[in-house]
Amino acid sequence: MSEIESTLPRRQLGRYLRDLRLQSGMTITEAAKLIEHGSSTLQRLEKGTGRVRVLDVEALCRVYGADETTTAAMLGLAQQAKVKSWWHDFGDLIPQSFDVYMGLEAAARNFTAYNVELVPGLLQTADYTRALVRSGYPEETAADHDRRVRMRAQRQILITRKTHSATVDVVLNEFVLRRVIGGRGVMSAQLRHIADLSTRPNVTIRILPFTAGVPSGRLTGPFIVLGFGDPAEPRVVYVPIFTGDMYLEKEEDVRKYDQAFQAIQHATLDEVSSRNMLRQIAREYERER
């Protein structure tokens, strides 16, 4: 059977199913036999290039012992397997508690991002994250908040590990530096943390000052372009929106965001000046405490 066109939902489904299989301790041959398919069929499904049947996905989740939330998420991805420009409506086909982006982020090898309002998750300190989750999830317990903070910190290993660390190229609007999250002490520590990260060889951080205006001529909002280090897997644009997430992988869409990022980047401070601004504003927060 020939391979069919890969899409983001199909590839993500394959990754999650492979993780579930490995966690169960099964080989591809063992799992395929239990759902009465050949090994090659399951291999293609895990690679994101096989035909997706909802009944097969449901059977695999049952065989792997997946919980209710994970099973619902897998079935939601299966139902959207053919979609290339994908709008993930929170709580629709996929449960709101299942973080699709986190799985995508874990597979990425490079990130290009523009942030307008908040420090991106990969650069956040624990106190900054905690301030956000307390205000964003007031109904949760302190233990739930701590779990979210730990999860965010674990994700940052992607850029801080000694080998195979991801490459990050981030532009922060000056507004991100001036918006006070968690108090002035938290902001001072956060900006120093970003400045320190920017000295790493795999991390590039530039500031778009207020004086730069709107370099691209249009407001883009925040976005992240993710690359996976594999020519067979196209880059994906991730656009977070209040009621859901948008994932774009059509070449024309990715090209437009590349052009927007280049225009924004052209108007930023250079890396050294950006680092100096981060530390200068951190000192201002310290003096104002």
Automatic annotation (TrEMBL):
CDD domains named among the record's database cross-references: HTH_XRE
Pfam family, one: DUF5753
Species: Nocardia uniformis
Ranges for domain HTH cro/C1-type: 17-71
UniProt xrefs under InterPro entries: Cro/C1-type_HTH, DUF5753, Lambda_DNA-bd_dom_sf
Alphabetized GO MF terms: DNA binding
Identification of the protein by name: Helix-turn-helix domain-containing protein
Domain of life assignment: Bacteria
